[in-house]
Amino acid sequence: xxxxxxxxxxxxxxxxxxxxxxxxxxxxxxxxPASKAPSVTATGAPATPSVDVASFSGPVIEHCATxxxxxxxxxxxxxxxxxxxxxxxxxGCNIGNGQFSRPRYSRDFxxxxxxxxxxxxxxxxxxxxxxxxxxxxxxxxxxxxxxDFGNQQRPDHRNPQFDEQxxxxxxxxxxxxYNFVDTDAxxxxxxSPTYMPNFLRxxxxxxxxxxxxxxxxxxxxxxxxxxxxLWFIDDTRYLRSVHDDAGHYLVIDAVPxxxxxxxxxxxxxxxxxxxPSTEISEAAADxxxxxxIFTVFSHNDIKVWNLYQxxxxxxxxxxxxxxxxxxxxxxxxxxxxxxxxxxxx
Length: 345
Hints:
Blueprint: E1 59-65, E2 71-76, E3 83-89, E4 111-114, E5 125-128, E6 133-136, H1 137-141, E7 157-162, E8 168-172, E9 177-182, E10 187-192, H2 207-211, E11 229-232, E12 237-244, E13 247-254, E14 271-272, E15 280-285, E16 292-297, E17 305-309, E18 319-320, E19 337-344
Antiparallel strand pairs: 1-2, 1-19, 2-3, 4-5, 5-6, 7-8, 8-9, 9-10, 11-12, 12-13, 13-14, 15-16, 16-17, 17-18
């Protein structure tokens, strides 16, 4: 992410997926000031399909080749560099949204919520990667008439997303109510006039107002953190990028208390955890904040991203992670590959 937040509500603009109707994928990035890359020590390992993704903790990566109509979610083993696939979906990447794309996926990352932007039929759906099928939630809950008679009013369901408990949440614009659906039983287990993902609550200016919306994720001026934010670690800390004449840095900064307005966002604020580098494009951290990874544009080739683990004890010496596959080699500016960290599990 650059100096302006890209992780905003555009993740909702995913077209409904029926049969072969899918969304494309494109992305871009711009190189920042160049500097010499730090020395590296880690080595990579080839991806091992038989590895259980639940057997290790690591970042979940959303990636796709640009101009294709599929998205793959993979989990990175930081210690080995192995990239283990979780699921593939026949819809384009949600470019540049990072952590804001997390509600797009179910708790186990095997389902993807789909909206009705293209069909404009008021239905919400999800794609199940295990059964390789699109499920029309609206039709299951509110079947259309089969003959000439019956309720002819078209539903107006919007902005499907998964909550932290694994329920599919969508907004019913006619009832002005959020529905929480157990997708296994395919039934509404509760309703509420308000909803907002938990990770957003500490960082938005007016959470009560956001909760009363229609499920679109806020961004920009509605957030109390700096525009260069890259990842929310917890309720009190987040990662953002700063820069000076020497280059770009990754910092851990404090989320302002609810009573405090957004700060001036000085490039000298926060704890710097990296040496000066080229532009920092993505970053993620585990829930404790003790493991932080980030990508920078290669000094030698702007079509390439290099992946590092920050050294919190010695910020001048991050460790490079050699990821298996060719994702990093093609993720830079006009490199043909879109990639973002969307979760940590």
